[in-house]
Amino acid sequence: MNQGLNRRRLLGASLVAAFGLAACGRKPPRAQAVPAAATVLALGDSLTSGVGASADTAYPAELARLTGWKVVNGGVSGDTSAQALARLPGLLQQHQPALVIVGIGGNDFLRRQSAATARANILRICTEAKGSGAQVLLVAVPELSLLAAAGRLSDHPMYEEIAEELKIPLHAKGWSSVLAQERLRSDPIHANAAGYAEFAQGLVGTLRQTGLLVQ
Predict the structure, then answer these.
(1) In terms of C-beta density within 10 A (0-12 exposed, 13-18 middle, 19 or more buried), how is residue 33 classed?
(2) 39-44 and 135-139 beta bridge pairing
(3) What domains are there in the chain, each with its CATH number?
(4) What is the C-alpha separation between 100 and 60, in angstroms, rounded?
């Protein structure tokens, strides 16, 4: 009888362990693929509008060429997170995008505005975009300053926090990598045409990894 009881306990423990390993090995759900020729909104500031290059070589234009999507350049030079948030409803209504790429916050950092306020604004931007029925991809931005941009850059940690909180994909280290390389910059805080092209190529890699882009 003791042997039977021990066998049952051992079997139960094995099943628990097996389920535990399966749960640990689960990957987060992949995003839904955005169809070819779908409308995608790139929301942001000068790094989205393409300051330092031309509209044809800004990253949204490069992304459109690489993906076949219709990418709307929703970047406004100088915009803070609050200003992007104010513009968002009109852009969503006008374009009804399948995907919104959110890359904002650099001007908040440059103007030394509250990081907590910027975080709250970006959280609202992503939430409202999701509420419209669009999928959202968040782009991490480094904590820019005129001095820091000339050396090593790293993403502000709030972007990873927001992505984890909302369960949305994050494109990390894109701008941090580009803006840390003099050959890819037009000035300390803006990319040049080569920099925007490199950023777009890296973004395509993230889009493929997350399942948003299938080619």
Answers:
(1) middle
(2) unpaired
(3) 37-210 (3.40.50.1110)
(4) 12
Name the strand (E) or helix (H) holding 96: none
H or E stretch including 156?
none
- Residues 79, 43, 183: CA angle, nearest 5 degrees: 80
pLDDT at 37 over 70: yes
In tens, the pLDDT along 91-141 reads: 999 999 999 999 999 999 999 999 999 999 999 999 999 999 999 999 999
Contact 139, 210 (CB under 8 A): no
* Strand extents, DSSP E, the chain: 39-44, 70-75, 99-103, 135-139, 170-171, 185-187, 190-191
Active site residues: 46, 187, 190
Distance CA 144, CA 57 (A): 22
Give residue for tokens 């995003």.
Answer: 31
pTM for the whole structure? 0.85
pLDDT confidence bin for 151, thresholds 50/70/90: low
Q: What are phi and psi of 2, to 5 degrees?
A: -65, -40
Residue 182 confidence (pLDDT): 93
